[in-house]
Model the fold of this input.
Amino acid sequence: MPKAQGKKFTFDTVDKIRPDYLETFNFDSKDQYIITKTKEFSAVCPFSGLPDLAKVIIEYYPDGGKCVELKSLKYYFISFRNVGIYQEAVTQKIYSDLKNVLNTQRLKVTSVYNTRGGFDTTCIEGDLEK
Done:
């Protein structure tokens, strides 16, 4: 039997996620539809300690007069890299943190995870029709 069987890796707790990294800039166009995507998101499965890789899609209307600054978003995403957090909770956390800084009612966060254990998982939080 391979020695890697049942191996578990250590990881950080969710308090290491840094929503304070998120910055915004003023933008006055509440009818503009904004989509931001990355294929470079990673966190850690809290069950196995193995990496979970995902494409994250953020869609919003800047109703609150703000846009997310992309470099700050990248740093925020990097803060998830060593954190043990379930896929569904990742999507919910990103949605909640962005909703707080953007102050918009029309926000949708989608995470499309790479196949793990034969399962494809897509998580969606929020909607654009409010």
About this structure: The CA atoms of residues 53 and 79 lie 14 Å apart. Residues 17-127 form a domain with the GTP Cyclohydrolase I, domain 2 fold (CATH 3.30.1130.10). Helices lie at 70-78, 87-102. The chain is about 20% helix and 35% strand.
